[in-house]
Amino acid sequence: MKIAIGSDHGGYDLKNEIIGYLKEAGYEYNDFGTYSTDSVDYPDFGKKVSESVAKGEYDKGIVICGTGIGISISANKVRGIRCALCSDIYSAKKAAEHNNANLIALGGRVLGVDLAKAIVEAYLSSEFEGGRHERRVNKIMDIEENML
């Protein structure tokens, strides 16, 4: 599985911790930046990660800003992206299983490292269940198609 990851300055430290987890777990990944704690704009990095996943270059993505809110909103503006802001393991698992989320967002200033790694592990190890959930995801995608 190929993972796209990116953050702003508020998510930089957590992003590096998550990259360490991805390496250790054997995932192929690409870091779309930022590469320091210098102030940057989260929409730029949400867009880079989202576009790479929407184009099919990566299977899933992880975006991180201070709270995860701004970057998740930005990511969801890219056609075909279903980004779920996750702050617990259960939500991360259900984002994959029920919502077929192709990105998750994390808050670098609100999550501890161990919890964030557990969230990422739950998300990446879970698969979309389809069935009744597929009908609902299709309705979400219909909204996107008709509104954008």
Brief synopsis:
The protein has 148 residues and is an alpha/beta fold. The chain is 48% helix and 16% strand.
Tell me what the structure shows.
This protein is α/β, with parallel strands linked by helices and 148 residues long. It has one domain: 3-Layer(aba) Sandwich (Ribose 5-phosphate Isomerase B, Chain: A). 48% of the residues lie in helices and 16% in strands. The protein has helices at 12-25, 42-54, 69-75, 89-97, 113-124, 132-147; strands at residues 2-7, 28-31, 60-65, 83-85, 103-107. Strands 2-1-3-5-4 form a five-stranded parallel beta sheet, with helices on both faces. Helix 4 (89-97) links the parallel strand 4 (83-85) and strand 5 (103-107). Helix 2 crosses helix 3. The radius of gyration is 14 Å and the shape is globular. The chain starts with a strand and ends with a helix.
Order of helices and strands: EHEHEHEHEHH
Overall mean pLDDT: 96
In CATH terms, the superfamily is Sugar-phosphate isomerase, RpiB/LacA/LacB
Strand order in the sheet with the most strands: 2-1-3-5-4
Please report which band the strand proportion falls in: under 5%, 5-15%, 15-25%, 25-35%, 35-45% or over 45%.
15-25%
Annotation keywords:
148 residues, alpha/beta, Ribose 5-phosphate Isomerase B, Chain: A, 5 strands, 16% strand, globular
List the helices and strands and how they pair.
Elements: E1 2-7, H1 12-25, E2 28-31, H2 42-54, E3 60-65, H3 69-75, E4 83-85, H4 89-97, E5 103-107, H5 113-124, H6 132-147
Helix pairs in contact: 1-5, 2-3, 4-5
